[in-house]
Amino acid sequence: MNRGLVLRLESLVQLRGACGQLRALSYRKAGGAQWKPVQASAHPLCSVLLRPQRWQKHRSIGAALAQCRHLATKEETKKKKKKIPLTRGEVEIRQKMTVEELARAMGKDIDHIYEALLYTDVDLDSLEPDSVLYEDHIKMIVQKSGMKYKSAKLKEEKERKNTDAVKRQVGNCSFWLFVPPADPAVLTPRPPVVTILGHVDHGKTTLLDSLRKTQVASMEAGGITQHIGAFLVHMPSGEKITFLDTPGHAAFSAMRARGTNVTDIVILVVAAEDGVMEQTIESIQHAKNAGVPLILAINKCDKPEADPERVKKELLAHDVVCEEFGGDVQAVNISALKGENLMVLAEATVTLAEMLELKADATGLVEGTVIESRKDRGKGPLTTAIIQRGTLRKGCVLVAGKTWAKVRFMFDENGKAVDAAPPGIPVEIMGWKDVPSAGDEILEVESEQRAHEVIDWRTYVEQQEKLKKDVEVIEAKQKEHRIEYKQQQQKLAHLTWRQRKAVLYKANKHLLFQRPTERREKAEDTLSVIVKGDVDGSVEAILNILDSYDCEDECKLDIVHFGMGDISENDLSLAEAFNGVIYGFSVKANDSIKKLADKKGIKIKLHNIIYKLIDDLKEELNSRLPPAVVETTVGEASVLDTFSVTVGKNKIPVAGCRVHKGLLDRKMKFKLIRSGDVIWKGSLSSLKHHKDDVQVIKAGMDCGLSLDRNLEFSVGDDIVCYEETEVQQTTSWNPGF
After folding, report:
1. Structural domain includes residue 652
2. Which Gene3D superfamilies does the annotation name (predicted)?
3. Which of 35, 363, 524, 597 is the most buried (most CB within 10 A)?
4. 174: in domain
């Protein structure tokens, strides 16, 4: 057959797929003028083309088709080459590349890097996408992938210019810790900042309530302060005093420390009937560390069991010496609830403030400290701050931590808008881009552009510090893993390389069937929590308590997310993904969120008192612990004689026993004790009294019994019948209160 005809027919044959069947159409010239389609079966050549088994008889057709197929394969190869990049190429490497960066440079995914590191001294469990690799490991991965490497040209890294914002001068000034001195000509008197410290429930908030003539304590959850309150109190004599009311609960130690760092005077409140307590001692230490003078307020002196003199003597042991004992600490006996001697306490505070000659510079750029921060649904991020220098006005651009603000509004402690805040005045600031942390320093800058420069620099410094810490942790883990790897290699040193590879494969083959990015530990013994609070200080206090958790061997505690504000859908998504529990402190969850949580089976636990939240968390930890099995003895018997019986071809040992305590119940479990050691646990195969099978043998009766396994008895053995009951375990974690 003509080869050109075959090629022509090949080009005219159309293969169409329909339900797995092929239909071939050919064309023939009819009447020398037109081309008409003909069914494949009507043309003998087409029938040959559609039946490969006939190609042997028509070698010319087979050869022609083979040539055509060969040409098509070349074209397909060219297309594939265009789509898939060459694997053999040069990879530009550099020192301290992360897993993610190396994968990107090689044109591979992260899983490829993990697979290349199998059977090496790298601990894959501690390896994350942002983990830094050693240079020798980088080279090994590239070579294993059939690629070449070349070192990147070293770029001279220019030292980044420090663009941070700083205070105007560097100096020191009595109480105003961290606030530098200014030109005496521009200094003006300012209100003293007074922090009220003391043990929980000793009457700190009630004292402040009486001074302000409001009902703060009645509004506090559980009657205890949950976060710092900053208030400006106007005295009858005309003086102004800024008071900070800090929590006395053990959980809020950081808040108390923060309060003393921005204060002039500390009023130490001690209950006359309780005396010096744990948080009283801690408050004294905070005041000493900050170098702040003390005024002692002995509260609840109206109670019959009150003993102010005992309080003064107890404080001597902590270097708090009252004036009547030759010291410099003023002591005032008060009753905050009845309002007794409050003016005497206020006068003592004003007198001490006059002695300190408290003045500040109300001009220039603003400086201050964040006392508390929170998120408000309508107003956005808010901060309670005390201005230490300059005068804060609307439109000022501030930086604090890694966020900034253009002041939109300012409010006093009663929620009333104010236009300006001079030094010593507490004010709530609205206009922050994000919530700064409590305790952050507030600095005014010239413009928004300057604020961005400051934030960029601080973010860069934090990233560098984090990278340094991460490298140290990774190096420590890799060093530990390298030692284990060398020990493993030494154990396999006597084997050939093939045998060694086979052993390693068996040990690690479970990793091959998992994508490295999907390797996760089972979360059955892990409690994942999402923490939401009303203000930054409350969240901080809860996290500080959770940091003391030291029972990882019982149940792991994983803090998935924390933040401020009401419970949101994002919190539910996280809880669903991690099978976690949401804990809210002084926040709300609206009806739609609660319904969605119920639908998804997510627990939302809301509390207003911190120790109740921690108790709830401990209950949740208890529920994650496996139940403990407790054995309760039902009866005891002694082996008096031994013999055996033949059942079929087997001899079964039998013990002749007498029950001397309780009863033996065949349905229960038994154990065999010999010389004080338990040598068997299980169930009985038979229990007889004389020749009768029985279920129960009571005290004082004899019996014969055999075990569910062939075990020889000895005279004097003890048989104990017991039942197992499951008891819920409780966590051994002690948060300290």
Report:
1. yes
2. P-loop containing nucleotide triphosphate hydrolases, Translation factors, Translation initiation factor IF- 2, domain 3
3. 597
4. no
